[in-house]
From TrEMBL:
Highest taxon, organism lineage: Bacteria
Region (Disordered): 1-41, 178-222
Alphabetically ordered keywords of this record: Ligase
Residue spans of biased composition, Basic and acidic residues class: 15-32
Domain DNA ligase D 3'-phosphoesterase positions: 48-160
UniProt cross-references to InterPro entries, sorted A to Z: LigD_PE_domain (IPR014144)
NCBIfam families, per database record: LigD_PE_dom (TIGR02777)
PANTHER family associated with the record: DNA LIGASE D 3'-PHOSPHOESTERASE DOMAIN-CONTAINING PROTEIN, DNA LIGASE D, 3'-PHOSPHOESTERASE DOMAIN
GO molecular function: ligase activity
Protein name: DNA ligase
Amino acid sequence: MERGGRPADGAGLAEYRRKRDFDRTREPEGAPRRKRRRGRGEPVFVVQHHIARREHYDFRLEVDGVLKSWAVPKGPSTDPSERRLAVPTEDHPLDYAEFEGTIPAGEYGGGTVLLWDTGTYTNTTAKKGRELTMAEGLAHGHVSFLLHGEKLSGGYALNRFRGGDGEEAWLLVKEKDAAADPRTDPVASRPESVRTGRVLTEIADDDGRTLHGRPRGSGGGR
């Protein structure tokens, strides 16, 4: 339905840039939107497996010219009965949807990043029969969408709630549809990068760095 609409202004990525030293990290600083436009069509989503201080999966949706982002400790599921915690993080530039590699130790998020899945998505958010933009849905605390990825597909939803400490958190839930499969754990059965076919240890080795943590499917067990 929508691509995301408005270009991101400088303030949209201010927190992202403030946390990073781009003389040290290879993460993208974020080019002006006109230079990174992917052409017409549906907005993008990306899931990145990230081994930093804690292992997690970064789930990102293109909305209004940036990647809205959540850290999902257990990764996405294809089982509709699973409700995966998704902690909101700062907006990322669209260029980040293509990032795979290592972030230097001492930098924010230092560790190894693997491009686990990517593709486009279709916004299906509605309220009382009226279609909502993704920005409207996020403001109301609920969005639903169809993923068209290499590993993930079909309907998903993000629902906001307040944790016991009062902090904002979300739940990432697979919808009941033909793509649902409660028998499969996609993050365990398909740990490889959709871009390079590498697993996390190979990315870390190729970059000459020590992998933090013990990721799934990395050859070292958990």
